[in-house]
Amino acid sequence: MNFEVYPLVFKPILKERIWGGAKLSSLLHKSIPTDTTGESWELSTVPGDVSIVANGNYAGLTVNDLISKFPEEIMGKNVCDNFGTEFPLLFKFLDAKEDLSIQLHPNDELAKKRHNSFGKTEMWYVMQADPGAEIIVGFKEKSSADEYLYHLENKSLPSILNKVSVKKGDVFFLETGTIHAIGAGTVIAEIQQTSDITYRIYDWDRVDAQGNARELHIEQALDAITYDVVASKKKYEMVVNKSNPVVDCAYFTTNVIPLEGKMNFTKNGTSFTVLVCTEGDFSVVNGSGVEFKFKMGDTILLPAALTDFELVGFATLLEIFIS
Q1: CATH number, domain at 122?
Q2: Is 105 annotated in some ligand binding site?
Q3: 110-141 pLDDT, tens digit each
Q4: Is the pLDDT of residue 74 over 90?
Q5: Residue 180, marked binder
Q6: Which amino acids are annotated catalytic?
Q7: Which Pfam families does the entry mention (predicted)?
Q8: Fewer CB within 10 Å: N-end or C-end of the chain?
Q9: pLDDT tens per residue, range 28-43
Q10: Domains in the chain: how many in total?
Q11: Closest Cα partner for 320 from 175, 174, 123?
Q12: 192 is in which domain, residue-wise?
């Protein structure tokens, strides 16, 4: 069976969250179920939340179905050599109407041992931020397990954490173990390892409609936390019609493309490419001149077999692949 090569998009998997809002609809045109929708999982192979193709001849198939039939055509040879048929990344949009919990993620070793999962290295690209919006990332000063537990007990943990003002276009790279929280008034594009393992350590003493607090993971977090000060904010250039490097780590490479007009690409087939449109409209034009149109809020999987293509339009794009 021959693989039909075209840009793939998927049905959003929408998640209600206690901290969610309505911007996934107003800003990104998602058909949200309620005005407390916090997440749109755009491309996922997390068990129970596997993305379904929304366009073209493969519409209705899951991404896992496609990868099992056409592993190298979709993932690329290098990615298959390293991950088999497990798609290694998860892509989301998040709308934080309220503050998210203060949390962190375990590394590969701990996640494998405790949860039989990948760890969760991630990055955030700020798509929109209200005036005064902040995030929490790491400690203000080098800390320790004892200091962390003391402040948790006294409900003063935020006082020793590093708060950072955010604006559109800011990028934060969060290595595993980094304490963090997305603050109210932000919309984030998130790129991460395929993992849903989160250690929640403080939730602002919130309760749900039934008066129940969400589960915390105080003990599990103790040996997973990075107590050193971290430098998570990434600086990058915005040269027009160029792939500007932002993050290059063992798990993924992310560039930012300010597209104005046309850009030609020749890939080597060793990895898939994902494009996340954070602003504007654009098209992917294949080698036969067939045009596929996309807009802000779209997440597009370009199979590894799509090696020659052109981007046309006026947009800001995140370009993600595995080196």
Answers
A1: 2.60.120.10
A2: yes
A3: 988 998 888 899 999 999 999 999 999 999 99
A4: yes
A5: yes
A6: 200
A7: MPI_cupin_dom, PMI_typeI_cat
A8: N
A9: 999 999 999 999 999 9
A10: 2
A11: 123
A12: 13-234
